[in-house]
Amino acid sequence: MEYLGTILLILLLVAMNAFFAASEIALISTRRSRIHLAKGKGSEKQLEALHHLLENPSEFLATIQIGVTMAGFFASATGAISLARNLGRHLEASGLPVLAILGEEIAVICVTVLISFVTLVLGELVPKRIAMAHPERLALISSRFIFFFSRVLRPVVVALSASTDVISRLFGVTQEAASSLSDEELKLFIAEQWTLPLEERRLISEVFEFGDTLAYEVMTPRTDMVCIEENATLGEALELSLKSHFSRLPVYREDIDNIIGFVHIKDMLPALKEGDLEKPVREILRPIHFVPATKKVVELLRELQQRRIHMAIVLDEYGGTAGLVTSEHLLEELVGEIREEHDREAPPYRKISDREYLVDASLPIETVNETLGVQIPESEESETLGGLV
């Protein structure tokens, strides 16, 4: 009973260390994007405290480090002052020459090793493992206590947080960079959500790819564009529109690198009604929008929406016509190919013999390699089979 009070105090300090250690892992493992999963499992004040801590990682890390340091220091000090001193006296009184000389030193070492072992196992490893298994739940439970300690210790926390932020910036680490959720983490999170239908997961994955896609990757190349010369008649334009099933036709002057506008089939209908189809298409031209080949499609889609247009000409690095892009092209990047009633699906390749295939030249080389199991070398100069040939 002599050491019961001291042992209980040490165990209390170890428990305090365990609380802070578990809270640290729980808060670090909890993402702001997952706070909504904790709704219904805690009070509004707990959720507010948790959100505040996750928004200020330097603050809660400083608070937790103060708590861990204080708990470890007082546990060691209590053991050294009370247990080690009394144990040293008993060892010195044992009658053994070595213990008579080094009894107190040996007692300090033994007590320190024992307290360190108990603190390491019960105050660090076990609580951290539990926190890793249930991060959101433990983060919710501990959030108000950590928030309270951060307010009580605010002067020290502010000083430590400021020092941490300054030194972290020297290594190129900011609070935003450390706490943001990367695209890879989001993709992994979505891939693991088996409760989502496959089509929904595929659509969400396409959204990530959409953000990195450039205009030249989705455009109709210039070799496949259906255009008309400015001096052509409305009758010729109407015939070409009906034959190609395109309601909008780019209009060029002299050559396709000089697109001057486009004609819409709706603008030809009055001439058809009046029987005046000999007028040149330049008389009903609409202005056309131009974009660089390297423009991101997410920006391009927003631009088309703001301008209320459906088509743009893609320019190459020399200002020539690289291709044509429509809002339909952009939407197909998200939802897949949109087929209309007059579209006929033609196979992109046809087997002629065991060693011969007739392949659509517009197919990307990567797609040909994956589909046919061949190894055609890819290069930056040519992405499609036609470009390689």
From TrEMBL:
<dbReference type="Pfam" id="PF01595">
    <property type="entry name" value="CNNM"/>
</dbReference>
<feature type="transmembrane region" description="Helical">
    <location>
        <begin position="96"/>
        <end position="122"/>
    </location>
</feature>
<dbReference type="Pfam" id="PF03471">
    <property type="entry name" value="CorC_HlyC"/>
</dbReference>
<keyword id="KW-1133">Transmembrane helix</keyword>
<dbReference type="GO" id="GO:0050660">
    <property type="term" value="F:flavin adenine dinucleotide binding"/>
</dbReference>
<keyword id="KW-0472">Membrane</keyword>
<dbReference type="InterPro" id="IPR005170">
    <property type="entry name" value="Transptr-assoc_dom"/>
</dbReference>
<keyword id="KW-0812">Transmembrane</keyword>
<feature type="domain" description="CBS">
    <location>
        <begin position="284"/>
        <end position="341"/>
    </location>
</feature>
<dbReference type="GO" id="GO:0005886">
    <property type="term" value="C:plasma membrane"/>
</dbReference>
<protein>
    <submittedName>
        <fullName>HlyC/CorC family transporter</fullName>
    </submittedName>
</protein>
<keyword id="KW-1003">Cell membrane</keyword>
<dbReference type="InterPro" id="IPR002550">
    <property type="entry name" value="CNNM"/>
</dbReference>
<keyword id="KW-0129">CBS domain</keyword>
<feature type="domain" description="CNNM transmembrane">
    <location>
        <begin position="1"/>
        <end position="206"/>
    </location>
</feature>
<dbReference type="Pfam" id="PF00571">
    <property type="entry name" value="CBS"/>
</dbReference>
<dbReference type="InterPro" id="IPR044751">
    <property type="entry name" value="Ion_transp-like_CBS"/>
</dbReference>
<keyword id="KW-0677">Repeat</keyword>
<dbReference type="InterPro" id="IPR051676">
    <property type="entry name" value="UPF0053_domain"/>
</dbReference>
<dbReference type="InterPro" id="IPR000644">
    <property type="entry name" value="CBS_dom"/>
</dbReference>
<dbReference type="InterPro" id="IPR016169">
    <property type="entry name" value="FAD-bd_PCMH_sub2"/>
</dbReference>
<dbReference type="InterPro" id="IPR046342">
    <property type="entry name" value="CBS_dom_sf"/>
</dbReference>
<feature type="domain" description="CBS">
    <location>
        <begin position="219"/>
        <end position="278"/>
    </location>
</feature>
<dbReference type="InterPro" id="IPR036318">
    <property type="entry name" value="FAD-bd_PCMH-like_sf"/>
</dbReference>
<feature type="transmembrane region" description="Helical">
    <location>
        <begin position="60"/>
        <end position="84"/>
    </location>
</feature>
